[in-house]
Amino acid sequence: MNEILDSEIKNLELLVQRSKKMQFYKVEAKKNIISIYCADKTVNGFIPTMKKYLPKNEWEERLKNIADISYEEILQFKLTDKKERLYVIRQYITMTDENNVYKSMWDSVGKPEILKELADRYLDRIEDGRFIPITPDWALPMS
Questions:
Q1: Structure letter (DSSP) for residue 35
Q2: For residue 134, what pLDDT is reported?
Q3: Which member of 40, 84, 86, 92 lies 3.0 to 4.6 Å from 112 by CB, making a disulfide possible if both were Cys?
Q4: Radius of gyration of the chain (CA)
Q5: Angle of helix 115-122 relative to helix 6-18, nearest 10 degrees?
Q6: Terminal alpha carbon distance of the chain
Q7: Helices (DSSP H) in the chain: which residue ranges?
Q8: What is the pLDDT of residue 5?
Q9: Nearest in space to 35 (alpha carbons), one of 86, 80, 90
């Protein structure tokens, strides 16, 4: 069962649409997570060239066909408090353990906040189909 409200998804989609850094994206909700998917970086690399040589309606149509093939989940908003409608931002990280073995996982960053506040702060960190990582508190040097 999806715990995310339709209005929350629509509002997040509007915020994503306003971002000038994301041309091809998807917003999906499953259970208690809203995911942002961006077209593969290769697809985003074609955009300036296609804009230069093709009419707008033609390059948009061509890129839609390419972008449907290759989307990558780059950011998550996880609902942590149903009553207050609070979310945390989650980024995908890769790190090594004490044996130098790589591990990849979704990592929550920061404290729970209202979805719009998180979106306003973190959607700008998406560039060229990638999310610019946030250094989690646990990774910062202790003072």
A1: E
A2: 75
A3: 86
A4: 17
A5: 20
A6: 44
A7: 6-18, 41-53, 56-67, 115-122
A8: 95
A9: 90
Cα–Cα–Cα angle for 81, 19, 122, nearest 5°? Answer: 40
> How far apart, in whole angstroms, are the C-alpha atoms of residue 117 and residue 120?
5
Strands 126-127 vs 102-114: parallel, antiparallel or unpaired: unpaired
pTM: 0.74
The pLDDT assigned to 101 comes to: 75
Mean pLDDT, 10 residues at a time, the chain of 143 residues: 90 85 82 88 64 77 64 91 95 78 82 93 79 64 51
- Let me know: does 131 contact 21? Beta carbons within 8 Å: no
Which residues, in sequence order, are CB contacts of 54 under 8 Å at separation 6+?
A: 62
Q: Give the H/E segment covering residue 63.
A: helix 56-67
Taking alpha carbons only, the member of 40, 41, 34, 44 closest to residue 119 is 34
Query: For position 10, what pLDDT does the model report?
Result: 95
In this structure, which amino acid lies at residue 12?
Answer: L
Q: Which residue has the tokens 């499953």?
A: 30
Write down the domain spans for the chain. Answer: 6-41+70-127
